[in-house]
Structures are given as structure tokens and as C-alpha cells.
Amino acid sequence: MRDVRANSEVSDDPAPESVRVAVMLHEPAPGRAAPPAHLDLFVGPVDCVDPDARVARSWRLPLGAWTSEGPVAGRFAAVETPPHRAAYLSIAAPVELSDGRGSVTPLASGTGTARAAKGGAGAEPGGESEAEPRGKPEETPEGDQALTIDAFGHRIALVPRGGGNWTIAIAKEGPWILP
Predict the structure, then answer these.
(1) Confidence class of residue 13 from pLDDT cuts 50, 70 and 90?
(2) In the chain, N or C terminus with fewer CB closer than 10 Å?
(3) How many other C-beta atoms are found inside a 10 Å radius of the C-beta of residue 32?
(4) Nearest CA among 78, 79, 72, 80 for reference residue 131
């Protein structure tokens, strides 16, 4: 997956690209409360052959963004975390993390499509759901751009708010009305 932060010439309607997507439950180690249990969303290239390459973009999401039935339609706060190893995109069983960081349990993984939207144009799902856009975000000083992912039968829009903070809007599969 290209680094959408480095691409300043993304058109208003860029072609989607295939990506691998994974969602994990991240539980802290016993006796360690920070950070509290949360979800990790990973998005990376489908063709990465080096499992140690740090190519998977990742976001920390609240537990309420996922149920046993999959993604929950709505809006949630998200925090971008540093890029993770490509191996996180294909974890198939619970794993104890090194350095006492707890464990991750895979909830879903697969492929989807992603597209960057300069300044957030057309990024958030719209329509009659709670994921309806509330204002058009600007590109952040860090150069982050909104990202729309179609995976797991849902449209997942990640919209930067600055300082590593993002809003994630999840809508059930189309049709979507975009601004």
C-alpha cells in the first residue's frame, strides 16, 4: 500500500487499491492497565513478502466498534499507532506479545479496497446512518489524509483530526451517499 501521507497529488476520486485488513483484540498484560483493552485495526499491502517489514498502518479503536457479529455502524474516536510488522495482517491465533505488552486475539482478517481522499473529500460514509458526515476535515499539518476502506461488508472511513487523533466512521455495505 502506498504511503498516503507522502502522496500530495491524490485526486478527488482516486482508484481503490487492494489491501489486507485485520482487526485484533489487544488485552493488556495482567497487572498492566495502560493502555486498556482495545481493538487494533491494521491495513497493509496484499503483496508484502517480508513479515518483519513495518508496512501495516494501524489504529487503536474502542472495544465498542466491534461485536461478535463484526463491525458496529457508527462513529468512534481512533488513535493512529506506529506502523506494525506485516505479520500482524495474518495472525490466525492468539499471540502473547513481547515486552509484557499483553496479547492480541484475531477477530477478523481478509482483503478489501482502500482509497485516500485528499482533505477528506468523499471519505466518510453518508446516508441515514450514524456514520453521516459532520463537516469536511482538512488535511492535517502532519500531512495525513482521510482513508476509506471497504472490507468485512462495511465501509470504514478514517478521518484525521490532527495530533494522531482520528475519527472512524463505519457504515454497513452500500449503497453509500457520499458528500
Answers:
(1) low
(2) C
(3) 12
(4) 72
For 148-166, what is the mean pLDDT? 92
Contact between 166 and 160 under an 8 Å Cβ cutoff? The reply is: yes
**Among candidates 67, 89, 69, 73, which has minimal Cα distance to 154?**
73
Residues 6+ apart with CB under 8 A from 52: 85, 86, 87
Question: What is the rounded CA–CA span in Å between residue 11 and residue 70?
Answer: 31
The answer to whether the CB of 97 falls within 8 A of the CB of 85 is no
With a CB cutoff of 8 Å and minimum separation 6, the contacts of 76 are 61, 62, 64, 65, 167, 168, 170
Tally of residues, the chain: 179
Residue type, 122: G
Give the span between the Cα atoms of 68 and 140, in whole angstroms.
Answer: 34
pTM of the shown model: 0.78
* pLDDT, position 15: 80
Residues facing residue 167 across a β-bridge: 77, 159
Q: How many CB atoms lie within 10 A of CB 175?
A: 6
Cα Rg, the chain, nearest whole Å: 16
| H or E segment and range at residue 86 | none
